[in-house]
Design brief:
Tetracycline Repressor, domain 2; mainly alpha; 215 residues; elongated; Arc Repressor Mutant, subunit A; 0% strand; 2 domains
């Protein structure tokens, strides 16, 4: 899911620079280290070693784990924003949104991803700075979902957020639950769970829009 709604602190160097490329490489290694050792289990020294750097040099890029999480969120949201721009420009924004939401749900429910964000979400319950970063992500995504629903209902941005904000929050919570519930399983769930989750999300959206038309 521009993300002007999020306004995250920009921890990345200017795009196109050698430093930005190196920063991206570090983030990829940090993801792997967090998944392997957990958010709390992976020390800054572990993260530096995973990136093939000295601790001192690593701190020049990311002075804390929270800074790494913020950069990961910024990267992911930049990709998400491109998706939402395409959704808003499509002839059927609501249909395009439902299709776009299916991919991450499928990846996590069927065991292809999810451990990293489950670790970070667990850390957020103990670390206010991490919780604040994830809250900004949730707020930004739910606002975008509400805006797309508003397009389907013919509402402007402010009216869409007021009318559909809680529905969009419920969609986020359903997705978050589905995407993290599979983490502890030794075998992935089959595609039927993905279908059920997506039917539930579609029902939430369709019912909300139907209520708007009735009024």
């Amino acid at each position: 899911m521009p993300y002007e709604l999020m306004s995250p602190t920009n921890t990345r160097p200017q795009e196109g620079s050698d430093a930005a490329h190196r920063s991206d490489e570090i983030l990829l290694q940090a993801r792997a280290a967090f998944v392997e050792k957990g958010f709390d289990g992976a020390s800054m020294q572990d993260l530096a070693r995973a990136a093939g750097m000295s601790a001192g040099n690593f701190y020049r890029y990311f002075p804390s784990k929270a800074a790494i999480v913020e950069a990961l969120v910024a990267r992911d949201l930049a990709e998400v924003e491109e998706v939402f721009q395409a959704i808003a420009a499509s002839p059927d924004p609501l249909g395009a949104l439902k299709m776009a939401l299916r991919e991450p749900v499928s990846q996590h429910c069927e065991g292809k991803d999810g451990l990293l964000w489950a670790e970070i979400a667990a850390a957020a319950t103990r670390k206010p700075e991490v919780a604040a970063i994830l809250n900004r992500m949730e707020d930004g995504i739910t606002r975008r979902v509400a805006q797309v629903m508003g397009l389907a209902a013919g509402l402007d941005e402010a009216a869409a957020i007021e009318r559909f904000g809680n529905h969009a929050c419920l969609v986020f919570l359903i997705m978050h639950g589905a995407m993290t519930a599979n983490v502890a399983r030794t075998q992935p769930r089959d595609g039927e769970l993905t279908d059920l989750v997506m039917r539930t999300i579609a029902r939430v959206m369709d019912d909300a829009l139907a209520e708007t038309k009735d009024h």
